Amino acid sequence: MKKGVMRPGHVQIRVLDMKEALKHYVDLLGLIETDRDESGRVYLKAWSEVDKFSVVLREADEPGCDFMAFKVVDEDALKQLEKDLVEFGSTITHREAGDLKDCGRRIQFTSASGHCFELYTDKKYTGKWGLNAVNPEAWPRGLKGMKAVRFDHCLFYGDALAETYDLFVNVLGFYLAEQVIDPDGNRVAQFLSLSTKAHDIAFIMHEEKGKFHHASFFLETWEDILRAADLISMENVPIDIGPTRHGLTHGKTIYFFDPSGNRTEVFAGGDYNYPDHKPTTWKAEDLGKAIFYHDRVLNERFLTVVT
Fold first, then answer.
1. What is the per-residue pLDDT for 164?
2. Which of 29, 61, 89, 290 has its CA 20 to 30 A from that of 259?
């Protein structure tokens, strides 16, 4: 594995109505607003995250994801990764420091699957929200809604999975944690990790490039997932599936939609991995059980509704 890319840093999500979006991401999900900029973007973080933001909302004419970013360990690693990306054949776009508030320079590139990603190394360190750095309490008071702990990962739909795998594994240093293989031996879903998490990013084969399936946020317990389901019903929020368990990753999960149609996941638990673990494999013909372990039946919305 190459070193340099540490973890997911942020995701920029397009929403149709900012006021309604904030009801979803702040009041329901429980993220904390940390700033706004002159273009109208709103910056959010989960309470346990140490950097200023992990979610950026941008009002637009259509929903979806503008880009997902990963934090790099230092400037030397960022420079080397830029060289490696250029050698790989990626076209680099430079975003100057301050283009995102209190974030350093970023380099953007597009995967063969049609998704935009970026790397950066500097972002304002604000510490865990509501907790002291010395002798912190167990959790902060005043959290809203589901009390999301952290932004965890994104799932993207697109084609060219083999080329995208090559980019993330051989250039950026991810490893394959879990996969779905079709009867011909082709990988049709790939779950990639930088850490001991079940995955930090995932891709599923889809005929259209550049589609956004969901952004996922970590909760602590199964009881938190059940409470999230109660809140979803209390607010009459459109639900996709759950509460249930995945076969893939074995996490406890629920999926629901923001007012713009972007899918959100909250989950708890799940498998752990190390880079020396061999990837877990699921057969495509058993995809129902792989996705929804209890029902063992695919929800058509889960496969077809993307932004």
1. 97
2. 290
